[in-house]
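Need the bound structure for zinc ion, inputs here:
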Amino acid sequence: MQITKNAVVSFHYTLNDPEGNVLDSSDGREAFAYIHGMGMIVPGLEQQLEGKTAGTKLKAEVAPDQGYGEVNPELMQKVPLDRFGGQNVEAGMQFQTPDNMVWTVVEVADGHAMLNGNHPLAGVTLHFNVEITDVRMATADELSHGHVHGPGGHHH
Ligand code: ZN
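Answer from helper R.:
Posting the output first, comments after.
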């Protein structure tokens, strides 16, 4: 069958940045599985998978506005270290604020931490190499739960 709304799609992938660095890959793992049309993967990839069938290999280039978004300069914030309640703050640390934003400490200098609230892949053009391994319709349970059951999905 062709990939259409509410299809469960399983695929192996490698994700590269424009310089060819591997950002993520399903290598050595089960194929990634998602329900098509529910916004579970980046929009640009979901669009390019539409209508494809199991066994298809494709390359998909996804611009930031169809991927993880452009970098928002307002999400780069310099915060005095005394605002962290005495905890040790180091570059690479991540924490979540009550509004569910995840912030990464980019740099600590001069008594301040530079925080980045953008997605780590914001502003990056994504280069996917995809091999679709399975396409089937989602079950009623999967649609009501909003996730895939079985290989590559939830086991419960
Ligand atoms: Zn479930």
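Comments: The chain has a mean pLDDT of 95. The pocket of zinc ion is lined by residues 145, 147, 149, 154, 156 (CB under 6 Å).
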